[in-house]
């Protein structure tokens, strides 16, 4: 590319560069992520992994989230710039089986610089935490609405169990310590502090959901298996492990039947997916709708984080399930 660099053109170009730096800046001093030699460049597949990397990395890392805020991350597609970020990062934190595009880009470009959080602890089978039984006096031979699990599929939504997230955090700290040995102690200490916060959250959930009139949660997609397993809830999901806007008529009918059978007063929808399905079921059974957030991404930039959204979820569940 050739152009005459008159003083005016140069000034314009410089202004543009400053503007771009302002837009992409992730650190407080206005330095674009990736340009700070003192920081470890970490790329995260989606929000909960960004949360972990930022909490544990602190000032020592610059974290880039591949998923846009407010966008549903399952079906994320990567642009060339993002593939470049994966190629150049010191560490890529991802969850194999959650975002196929990221899995592929990591395989082709990240080499041994990837940390797969799905390997930290065995994942649950896709059907675990689901809902499978016969109702009293009812023919219930048809497939339940909790489906989506077959062929040994694994459920990736592991971050919704705070204690599992803490264990992933410990492992991430260890991995960051091998990338950046000088600050290994810092990473371990911050992971410890995060573990304490997550264990407090876990205790609040255990206590808050101990005594409830109902334990079935009717949700859009099968995102709450870990939450359900940890706190003895029953997940009744309209669609499978990935969100869909248009479930089959059978799935919808089965969910309506389940909601009625368990006298659900609330049908849950998600912030990043259309509430249409939840509204349809709620109308059919005379229930309300409410947000139960699977925290696949943050919906707003109002200072919320994993911990605050989980606490909001807990209050929502306590109201919907009439917990004392
Ligand atoms: Zn999901
Ligand atoms: Zn049932």
Descriptive account of the structure:
It contains ten helices and eight strands. Strands 2-1-3-4 form a four-stranded parallel β-sheet, with helices on both faces. By secondary structure, the chain is an alpha/beta fold. α8 (249-261) packs across α9 (276-285). The chain has helices at 7-24, 47-57, 80-88, 100-109, 162-179, 184-208, 225-230, 249-261, 276-285, 306-320; strands at 40-44, 61-65, 91-94, 114-116, 216-221, 234-239, 266-269, 288-291. β7, α9 and β8 (288-291) form a beta-alpha-beta unit. Bound molecules: zinc ion (2 copies).
State the gist of this model.
With 324 residues, the chain is α/β, with parallel strands linked by helices.
Secondary-structure blueprint:
Blueprint: H1 7-24, E1 40-44, H2 47-57, E2 61-65, H3 80-88, E3 91-94, H4 100-109, E4 114-116, H5 162-179, H6 184-208, E5 216-221, H7 225-230, E6 234-239, H8 249-261, E7 266-269, H9 276-285, E8 288-291, H10 306-320
* Global structural class: alpha/beta
Strand content: 5-15%
SSE order:
HEHEHEHEHHEHEHEHEH
List all distinct small molecules, including ions and cofactors, that are bound in this structure: zinc ion
Largest sheet: 4 strands, parallel
Physical arrangement of strands within the biggest beta sheet: 2-1-3-4
List descriptors.
alpha/beta, single chain, two-stranded parallel sheet, binds zinc ion, disordered N terminus, 4-stranded parallel beta sheet, 10 helices, 324 residues, 11% strand
């Amino acid at each position: 590319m050739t152009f005459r660099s008159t003083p005016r053109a140069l000034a314009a170009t410089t202004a543009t560069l400053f503007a771009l730096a302002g837009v992409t800046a992730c650190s407080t001093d206005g330095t674009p992520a990736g340009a700070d030699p003192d920081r470890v460049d970490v790329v995260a597949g989606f929000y909960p992994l960004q949360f972990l990397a930022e909490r544990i990395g602190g000032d020592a890392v610059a974290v880039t989230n591949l998923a846009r805020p407010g966008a549903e991350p399952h079906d994320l597609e990567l642009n060339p710039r993002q593939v470049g970020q994966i190629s150049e990062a010191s560490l890529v934190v991802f969850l194999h089986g959650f975002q196929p595009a990221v899995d592929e880009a990591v395989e082709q470009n990240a080499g041994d610089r990837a940390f797969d959080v799905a390997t930290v602890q065995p994942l649950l089978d896709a059907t675990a935490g689901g809902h499978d039984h016969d109702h009293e006096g009812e023919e219930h031979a048809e497939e339940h609405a909790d489906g989506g699990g077959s062929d040994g599929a694994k459920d990736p939504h592991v971050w919704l169990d705070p204690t599992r997230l803490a264990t992933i955090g410990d492992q991430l700290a260890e991995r960051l310590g091998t990338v950046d040995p000088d600050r290994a102690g810092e990473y371990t200490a911050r992971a410890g502090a995060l573990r304490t916060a997550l264990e407090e959250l876990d205790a609040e959930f255990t206590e808050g959901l101990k005594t409830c009139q109902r334990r079935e949660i009717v949700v859009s997609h099968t995102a709450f298996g870990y939450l359900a397993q940890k706190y003895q809830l029953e997940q009744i999901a309209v669609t499978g492990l990935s969100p869909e806007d248009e479930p089959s008529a059978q799935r919808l009918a089965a969910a309506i039947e389940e909601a009625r059978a368990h006298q659900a007063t609330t049908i849950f929808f998600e912030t990043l997916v259309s509430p249409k399905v939840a509204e349809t079921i709620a109308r059919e059974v005379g229930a309300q709708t409410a947000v139960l957030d699977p925290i696949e991404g943050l919906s707003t930039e109002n200072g919320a984080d994993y911990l605050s959204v989980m606490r909001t979820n807990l209050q929502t569940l306590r109201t919907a399930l009439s917990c004392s």
